[in-house]
Design goal:
Strand order of the largest sheet: 3-4-6-5
Low-confidence stretches: 63-76
Largest sheet: 4 strands, antiparallel
Oligomer: single chain
Mean pLDDT: 83
Helix content: 25-40%
Radius of gyration: 19 Å
Number of domains: 2
Structural class: alpha+beta
Shape: elongated
Length: 208
């Protein structure tokens, strides 16, 4: 069983910004100990601030809101909601923070891995994980994924190599998803499926 944080480490964790997880206190030794335990990470870019990991956020929430879900899935690994999950986790402040943190991390990944440092278009990781990347962009912008009743967005793979299909309950919601994805660096177009006549968006990462 993992040892709980010391009282001093707990104070450092509690000092973190509730949304970004940026740590605003603690000695170098305390911060290094939190990093070693997987509760924080040191940002690679100057000024090399420290931030809580999802595990660190859960540790913080364990005291402030013990009834909230401990993790978005059974493994404790963050996963964007693509819509239509049989048992989607309940929406909670902790989930909002995790999604915000994941999106900010993705923007930073764009800056570090796109050749020109651009943050306004998808990076290589997103091109390799199209469904999850599009779903994260939608969830981070406040769109709601579909539950078992189907009310919300759904992101699905397509036979096309660099495109996903996005479904929404009505035309207005579909247009809202299109606007969000285009702002996040995707190109979209409405499409009618020949067999079902269902309307959807075809979305692909913009290259330039």
């Amino acid at each position: 069983m993992t040892r709980p944080p010391t009282a001093a480490q707990r104070r450092v964790i509690d000092s973190a910004d509730p949304v970004t997880g940026r740590l605003r206190g603690g000695t170098e030794a305390q911060l290094a100990a939190l990093v070693k335990r997987g509760l924080a990470f040191r940002h690679p870019r100057p000024p090399h601030d420290h931030f809580l990991t999802p595990a660190g956020h859960r540790t913080r929430e364990a005291v402030t809101a013990p009834a909230e879900p401990a993790a978005p899935d059974a493994t404790g690994v963050f996963a964007a909601r693509v819509g239509g999950e049989e048992q989607p986790p309940e929406a909670s402040p902790a989930r909002v923070r995790e999604v915000h943190s994941a999106w900010q991390g993705l923007v930073e990944l764009r800056r570090m891995t796109n050749p020109d440092g651009a943050t306004d278009r998808p990076c290589g990781w997103e091109r390799g994980h199209l469904v999850r990347a599009a779903a994260l962009a939608l969830e981070a912008a406040g769109h709601h994924p579909a539950g078992p009743d189907g009310d919300g967005y759904r992101v699905r793979a397509t036979p096309q190599p660099e495109a996903v299909a996005v479904y929404a309950p009505d035309a207005e919601a579909l247009r809202g998803c299109a606007a969000t994805l285009e702002k996040a660096g995707w190109q979209t177009g409405e499409h009618t499926e020949p067999r079902t006549r269902a309307r959807c968006l075809l979305a692909s990462p913009r290259r330039a």
